[in-house]
Design a protein that fits this description.
The complex is a heterodimer of chains A (245) and B (317). By secondary structure, chain A is α/β, with parallel strands linked by helices. Helix content of chain A is 36%, strand content 24%. In chain A, α3 packs across α4 and α3 runs parallel beside α5. Chain A is globular. With 317 residues, chain B is an all-alpha fold. In chain B, 77% of the residues lie in helices and 1% in strands. The chains are: A alpha/beta (245), B mainly alpha (317).
């Protein structure tokens, strides 16, 4: 990056304190436009908290988050979405008593105002995400794979430049997993930058350009998938320390 | 689509012709009241049914509308009909204030806050005697002797409220209302300013309820705090109209209004004089039984569960 160039997305030394617990403690990373950036760590290491800090669901305790050089600190969650940062939830949140199409239309209204434009944008996004055949089903009737896909479709309908995917592959069978990987790659190919939180190594190692590993709210490694997979601290965090025996 | 439009047109024609065919003041009176409840029930439904913000305090808006019209006539000697416009606006202003305070709360806490708001307004109307005449109430002169003008005003109000609610629910606002009801956190993350859209929903809801209140002042020519700010006559009745007709349906509150007025009158008149007089005191009890029945067997109300009801009748034949 040249001197003076503004990075696309930058997390600067962020911390989050819940009472006495430091859920996130001084994490920093930069994401370049167009890449898939993986965020990994054991359960409870603070990955979802980082997402909640990025879209300002929780206020930051300290640090700053810059999107295209502009601080998002103090913005409301809905303003983050209008700014161009979309997200999905790990615990899926379908709007249950609406059809799949209505779910996606509700989010498409983020960018357009009329019913017709919203429907067009929703249909287009449903087709892109291979969910068009389910459009008239109620969101409550979708199985978990469909719900995860609906989360992505809804986020995509808000036309994000940066998409935060929170464990969108968890609970999927191998076939569905391949479809999810293919979809995320197509989203990247569309020019959307992706930050992905994932436990399934097959997914994260296949598609990430770079990976950032955290444990207990702190950075333990960052680099290419190979570098991170061979990092001693990462292995220890996932498998435990080498035994003495 | 086409078939529905034909049905709506037919129902419209029936309502326009009704008072010309049925000359009885009594039946015209009942339909006028039912039409007024179509407006209130629909307003409640927009906020509670579609937006998910359950209000136990719609009497606030009804009473504010009624008192606006009454005070205009009583203190300023302006026709209470002006209250139809002003009543809606003042009720909407009150709605904005209540939204500003109460929308900090979610779910049951919001509902509780609206009960408190209703009681506060009832007490204000009771005690601010220099403005509201307190417990004496406000009495004005009726403009018309015939029921016909009132009937058509009520019909116009009911029809326009349904038209507006339908229009809103097919727009961006409608999608946002339902999204907020289904999951406020998900809605926020999809770019929906939940606080703003809850207030918009409340604003429309309180405006129409206020108009209905102002109509009530004009029609009944007498109001007092115990009636127009009543928790059970107004606030609870609005909920019953919505639940029995069908929450989150356009036509539910309209059907519910006619059912509720019908049931209320049937029992209040002791089955039209056929039953002993103690029956007339049981109409509130009957409301309770009706709600239990509806919740057990058709949780989506008459309109919401219409396909189920239709199947039941087709099977038994």
């Amino acid at each position: 990056m040249g001197v003076g160039a503004v990075s696309f997305f930058e997390v600067k030394d962020i911390s989050k304190n819940f009472g006495g617990l430091m859920a996130v403690n001084g994490v920093s990373f930069e994401v370049e436009q167009g890449e898939i950036f993986g965020l990994i760590g054991p359960n409870g290491s603070g990955k979802t908290t980082i997402f909640n800090l990025i879209n300002q669901y929780f206020p930051l305790t300290s640090g700053d988050i810059l999107f295209k050089g502009k601080s998002v600190k103090g913005m409301k969650t809905y303003q983050i979405c209008h700014l161009g940062i979309g997200r999905t939830f790990q615990v899926v949140k379908p709007l249950k008593r609406m059809t799949v199409l209505e779910n996606v239309m509700a989010s498409a209204f983020c960018r357009v105002n009329s019913f017709r434009e919203s429907k067009n944008l929703a249909m287009e996004t449903l087709e892109f995400c291979n969910l068009l055949h389910e459009k008239d089903k109620s969101a409550a009737s979708l199985p978990i794979a469909g719900r995860k896909r609906l989360e992505i479709t809804r986020a995509m309908a808000t036309k994000p430049e940066l998409l935060l995917l929170d464990e969108t592959a968890a609970g999927l069978n191998p076939g569905e997993l391949d479809e999810a990987i293919e979809l995320i790659q197509r989203i990247r190919d569309r020019g959307v930058t992706v930050i992905i939180v994932e436990h399934i190594m097959k997914v994260i190692m296949t598609i990430s350009n770079r990976i950032h590993a955290i444990n207990y709210g702190q950075t333990i490694a960052e680099g290419s998938p190979e570098e991170v997979a061979n990092n001693k601290e990462v292995i220890e965090a996932y498998l435990g320390e080498e035994s003495y025996a | 689509m086409k078939r529905n439009q034909v049905i709506v047109a037919l129902v419209g024609i029936i309502f326009v012709l009704f008072p010309l065919v049925v000359k009885s003041d009594y039946y015209q009176h009942l339909v006028i009241l039912a039409l007024m409840w179509v407006v209130i029930g629909g307003s409640w439904n927009l906020l509670a049914g579609y937006t998910g913000q359950v209000s136990f305090g719609h009497a606030v808006f009804f009473g504010t509308g009624a008192y606006t019209a009454g005070i205009l006539a009583n203190k300023l000697a302006i026709s209470a009909w002006w209250g139809m416009a002003f009543g809606g606006f003042i009720a909407a202003l009150v709605g904005l204030f209540i939204g500003w305070v109460c929308f900090r709360l979610r779910g049951p806490y919001f509902a509780l806050a609206t009960i408190a708001a209703g009681e506060i307004f009832r007490l204000i109307a009771t005690n601010w005697e220099s403005l509201t005449e307190g417990m004496l109430g406000i009495m004005i002169l009726q403009t018309f002797r015939s029921k016909l003008p009132y009937y058509y005003v009520a019909l116009a109000l009911a029809a326009s409220s349904i038209w507006v609610f339908d229009l809103v629910m097919k727009s961006k606002w409608g999608f946002y209302f339902v999204s907020i009801r289904e999951d406020q956190d998900a809605a926020e993350s999809l770019g929906i300013n939940a606080t703003l859209y809850k207030n918009i929903s409340l604003l429309i809801s309180s405006f129409f309820t206020g108009m209905a209140g102002a109509f009530y002042m004009n029609y009944m020519a007498f109001i007092d705090p115990e009636v127009v700010f009543s928790l059970h006559y107004i606030s609870i009745m609005a909920i019953l109209v919505g639940i029995i007709g069908g929450v989150a349906t356009i036509w539910g509150p309209a059907v519910g209004a006619f059912i509720m007025i019908g049931v209320q009158e049937t029992f209040r008149s002791a089955l039209f004089g056929l039953a002993p007089s103690w029956v007339s005191q049981s109409h509130v009890l009957v409301f309770g039984l009706l709600v239990i029945f509806v919740i057990l067997f058709m949780a989506n109300g008459v309109v919401g569960d219409w396909p189920k009801i239709k199947r039941l009748f087709l099977r038994s034949r």
